[in-house]
Task: structure prediction
Amino acid sequence: MHVSVDRTRCENHGQCVISAPDVFEFGDDGTLQFHEDEVAAHADEVVDAADVCPAQAILLGQTR
Result:
């Protein structure tokens, strides 16, 4: 699964951090960070995070 975050849409609500804390977190500067290397191990949580994002800023796709 390919994950990207549209930084122009992200409003830092933090629902993704709650849904998938091993993948998403807020950096020291307050911006959203995500760990691509953790996506495969937590795919169900990432899908949930994308679903609950109020800004729909988390985009999911298939890896080639």
Q: What stands out?
A: The mean pLDDT is 94. The chain has two helices and four strands. The radius of gyration is 11 Å. The beta strands are 2-5, 24-26, 32-34, 58-61.
